[in-house]
């Protein structure tokens, strides 16, 4: 297998009518071709890999263990992360309820954080702004997608906060990733537009290859 299998392909596409699974299948084909991974067990009619789910709902390719993936969609975008090792990705558009002011949204986000986040995450949101809420939300979502545990009663038991809090406190710049370690995993977070935050959770740092609109 080529050393490119150590890369992580991040495929960002507009939701143009194609399903997230169609985008994921195409991303997997591109990754397999570039990394020299044979796809011998594809459906002869559709050319796609069979997708199964764990008991907790985490999707995987049962016939191609060399390819791991995670999918998220929000607003007008679908994001697919494909790698040779486990990965979790989450994308969130910064939204407000109809007629809601920024101050009202922040108050609502702080209540959500206090109810569902770890204490130190909730405190970070309490002292921050709306963008800070989405930083924590996407990081936590990417983690539970990595582990496959999903949003359960233990969602507030773990913290994704970095030791150096200034990494999250500073204002993010679109397409300039910020990385930190927590719980033995690597979190890579970025804005893809001023009002969209995404986070990738991996075991160790990856060379991220961004592809657009495949």
How is the secondary structure organized here?
Layout: E1 7-14, H1 20-35, E2 52-53, E3 59-60, E4 68-74, E5 77-83, E6 87-93, H2 102-116, H3 119-126, H4 130-147, H5 166-169, E7 178-182, E8 185-193, E9 196-202, E10 207-212
Parallel strand pairs: 1-10
Antiparallel strand pairs: 1-5, 2-3, 4-5, 6-9, 7-8, 8-9
Helix pairs in contact: 2-3
From the 3D coordinates, which CATH architecture would you assign? Answer: Alpha-Beta Complex
Task: Find the structural class using helix and strand composition.
Answer: alpha+beta
Radius of gyration: 17 Å
Which CATH C-level class is it? Alpha Beta
Number of strands: 10
Overview of the structural elements:
- It is a single chain.
- The protein is an alpha+beta fold.
- It has a single domain, classed as 4'-phosphopantetheinyl transferase domain (Ribosomal Protein L22, Chain A, Alpha-Beta Complex).
- The protein is built from 5 helices and 10 strands, in the order βαβββββααααββββ.
- The strands form 3 sheets. It has a 4-stranded mixed β-sheet with strand order 4-5-1-10, with helices on one face. A 4-stranded antiparallel β-sheet has the order 6-9-8-7, covered by helices on one side. The protein has a two-stranded antiparallel sheet with strand order 2-3.
- Strand 4 and strand 5 form a beta hairpin.
- Helix 2 packs antiparallel against helix 3.
- It starts with 6 loop residues before the first strand and ends with a strand.
């Amino acid at each position: 297998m080529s050393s490119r299998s150590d890369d992580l392909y991040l495929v960002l596409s507009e939701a143009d009518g194609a399903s997230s699974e169609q985008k994921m299948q195409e991303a997997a084909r591109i990754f397999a071709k570039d990394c020299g991974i044979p796809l011998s067990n594809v459906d002869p009619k559709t050319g796609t890999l069979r997708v199964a789910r764990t008991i907790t709902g985490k999707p995987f390719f049962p016939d191609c263990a060399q390819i791991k993936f995670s999918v998220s969609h929000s607003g007008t975008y679908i994001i697919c992360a494909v790698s040779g090792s486990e990965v979790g990705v989450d994308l969130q558009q910064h939204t407000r309820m109809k007629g809601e002011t920024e101050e009202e949204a922040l108050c609502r986000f702080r209540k959500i954080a206090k109810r569902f986040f770890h204490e130190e995450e909730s405190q970070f949101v309490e002292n921050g702004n709306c963008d800070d809420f989405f930083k924590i939300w996407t990081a936590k979502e990417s983690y539970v997608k990595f582990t496959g545990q999903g949003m359960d009663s233990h969602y507030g038991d773990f913290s994704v906060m970095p030791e150096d809090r200034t990494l999250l406190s500073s204002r993010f710049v679109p397409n300039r990733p910020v990385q930190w370690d927590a719980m033995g995993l690597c979190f890579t977070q970025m804005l893809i537009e001023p009002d969209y935050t995404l986070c990738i959770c991996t075991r160790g740092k990856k060379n991220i290859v961004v592809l657009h609109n495949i």
